[in-house]
User: Fold this.
Amino acid sequence: MENWWILYFLCFSFYGMSQERCYVPTHQEALSLSDPNFLLDQANREAILARQSNAFARNGALTIPVVFHLVGISGSYFPSDQLVLSQLDVLNEDYGFQNANKDQTPLEVENLAVDMGLRFCLATSDPDGMPTSGIIRTVTDFDCLGNISQVKVGDRPRLYYEDLGGSQAWDPDRYLNIWVTNTCGIYLGFSTFPGTAIPAEDGIIIDPKYFGRSTASGPIPPYNLGRTLTHEVGHYFNLIHIWGNTGCDGDDLVEDTPNQENFYLGCPLYPSSSCGSPDFFFNFMDYSDDNCMTMFTRGQRQRVWNSIAAFRPTLLRDLGCDEIISNSALLVYPNPARDILYFQFNGEPGPIELNIFDSAGRYIFNAQFKNEGARWVDVWDWANGVYFFESVDQKYQGKFIIFN
Assistant:
């Protein structure tokens, strides 16, 4: 079959085909010309993966810290914290099989649909151990940074390098890096595959027009429900397209997904068949509209977990995103919070005074606590987003999220 292995999947285009769904042929040709070991390396990685045993053996989900690099020119559209949080919700719903439309999965294949065992959270500490919102906004002098094959200096795409006007990746052994930037109509989403990129360029790119979940404004229908990133995260963990890119003779290397001749657009009726069996156009690794994607399969989960064990094993440390504070005597919960936020002081005689700031560093609120124990702050009317707190004496520092 034709070589499916591509370092980069530049995927999802607008209905009008003004954008390329997959930039595979151009990148495959360039990579194979520039690296004589390209195909051999991919074959070797697949051989390593074949030797992995059942890596999915957890009693809970693996939580992966995410850092969003929002990069654009002055005056361009930057997604709000609320839209970032909505995108994070979509990832957790889709990878936990808790998506609202999961009941659209055909009855005949419901037994294959699974919780992938992955969860995603905003990073709470940066590579230097300092508190962070997990959302980095960078104003640059260069547009179209998502066009990484053209907007570069030498062999370095500007997007990935701070000195070239981009945003530096955080250690991919600890974080999932996602760049949200203008692709200038070339593609909607992009991802590196495990073991195929240098650390500085390992991660996902998504155009802000297709980022987050919104039915009113922001992302553009029919890709306005956050599934572009769900799809790209699948590539990041080594899933390929459901149709295998090569027609009925193709294979996505997953046993429980049938061969499929090509991708689907729109929202087809089930059953739709192409290779003698009903196609899985509702799978997150196809190209159907966001509201028609519903599930991953057991076989896809196994491939993802085997790939993590083989190629991204440091993520198995499950660092998660527990709140980072400078003194263990303080507990902040629930986080994210709705309506009420609690500060639990254990053993601190008081009084304690906290200043609260939004993600832009603007002062929001002053909270004063006289005694030890739990004290609450009414946040029902606060804007959704990321907030930081610091005690006046600088003994306590941390971050919380409001999502009313």
